[in-house]
């Protein structure tokens, strides 16, 4: 019997934990059945017709799709095509996009034979065993199918498991072969909170894997040198001491793998900061959902957080300088006006994380938000991803404005490529939000938002904005200097794409800076604790910052860039200068 289990990931870099976990659960419970299970993973960027053809050519007896908000449109086309080619082929679906609205899905898609609601590691193998013996649909917990009348309300059908019965989802080949993709891992399921827009608040009791087992499974990722593992635990530090144990274990191991956690910063304690202080740079990455700082909105969506505590803890994490911090905001939540959202943005921006993700409310089927949408005046797209279009508090025009802000913020803020320029630019505005709002407005007026565009064009557009906005020549040139720094840090051997500039520092100034920096370095290094040191970057050696006194291959025949940065913290670049070709001999 030829069975296919398939899904489409949102991008190539992502992998599906669900299909792996279901596969391993099946292999553990396969018994003596000669069922051959093939797992096929695609991305939503693949051509759906090619996927359908490939699945058809595998001559399946049964096909199962794992369905999410990002792939449902494609699954619908592929499933329908398969059924046109093979009318008697049973096609079944599972996953969060279908499990919470199973009856609707059955009504919407006549080609679907059945839907698994909730967790599938028990129901999937049980279904296959039964099907193999009887060729009929079994009555098993979590399955809704056309042949049986289901009187049960959906909530009692959604199947929840004991964590300990779950298999480890990965094979050794996978751990070896997916070095450049993200692997997902679960050490707990469920969430104790009840944010109304989130599916994890629906019927998901909190359960944990035994710590000894978690350690052993983490060892597998480490031994195989996996690059990045993302914990999909809903609130990783919901159990504080358990979270600490896992962090401690990983810190002791100090592996080369990077681990990502979604956590509640207001649950962190001083003890966590002290522990995390020992984590080497690059070991951890934290995603912290803030969503809004407006207490009224937070109360409406039943999200329990304490922004003051979050601020304190995030600032402390940032000071560690070793953990990549990613903060989330959601626009279009009930009760939040455009102005109030701008305050949330400013509050969160001030925390200075590495990334601030500006997302938009999705009214997910099965959530409390779906039930209350009308009450809050939320108009949303009825198709996935069910995004908010307007609410009682925020107009469609303002939400569109926020989309444009998000676009320019992704490019100029989150990319990190314009760090020093944006830092400088923001300082000329009363609030960061105003800076990005003005930039987005400028983009809108120039019809630049449609441009995917070349990188060089983005630099030119930003410079046009600066020229228009910053009237003071000195300030403008100061920003240009920062732009150059950003550019050469990123593209050390490319030509700076702005031809307009005419700023020059006098040779005298350069000599002075160079002399100062050198002298300071020599002086401070004598006590073996330099605070600042100069480094240089040859145009042909990108990001290879060599301490000034170690430069051996200095040649006056090429232009060099010198950087003064905070050392030994080596984080902030506090000054920089350019040494033009032939500078030292005065030409
Ligand atoms: C990883 C992840 C992503 C990744 C994508 C991963 C990928 N493969 O491409 C990224 C970060 C890109 C992402 C993005 C988004 N995500 Co997301 N994401 C997740 C996350 C954290 C983990 C999913 C996972 O692997 N879980 C572990 C597995 C084991 O559980 P599971 O997926 O539920 O699968 C079990 C059951 O559902 C069932 N099952 C699943 N498939 C099948 C199939 C069969 C045949 C059977 C029998 C059973 C079955 O059995 C499985 C094992 O028990 C979940 C939250 C969570 N912790 O689950 C959200 C989640 C899936 N995401 C969600 C959302 C809303 C989004 C975004 C829209 C958020 C946003 N930005 O606004 C975007 C959309 C991206 C896009 N391009 O459109 C929602 C999904 C809602 C939905 N209806 O699908 C979730 C559930 C979060 C939430 N709590 O609300 N996401
Ligand atoms: S948003 Fe986070 S904290 Fe809230 S219910 Fe979902 S997973 Fe839990």
Name its key features.
587 residues, alpha/beta, Rossmann fold, pyruvate-formate lyase- activating enzyme, 3 domains, 6-stranded mixed sheet, 6-stranded parallel sheet, 21 helices, globular, disordered C terminus, binds cobalamin, binds iron/sulfur cluster
Reported CATH architecture of the largest domain: Alpha-Beta Horseshoe
What shape does the CA trace take?
Answer: globular
The overall number of domains is: 3
Task: Name the strands of the widest sheet in spatial order.
Answer: 2-1-3-4-5-6
Structural commentary:
Residues 500-506, 512-534, 538-545 and 583-587 have low confidence and may be disordered. The protein folds into three domains: 2-156, Rossmann fold; 170-394, pyruvate-formate lyase- activating enzyme (Alpha-Beta Horseshoe); 501-585, no CATH class. The protein is built from 21 helices and 20 strands. 40% of the residues lie in helices and 17% in strands. A hairpin with a 7-residue loop joins strand 17 (532-538) and strand 18 (546-547). The strands form five sheets. A six-stranded mixed β-sheet has the order 2-1-3-4-5-6, with helices on both faces. The protein has 587 residues and is an alpha/beta fold. Bound molecules: cobalamin and iron/sulfur cluster.
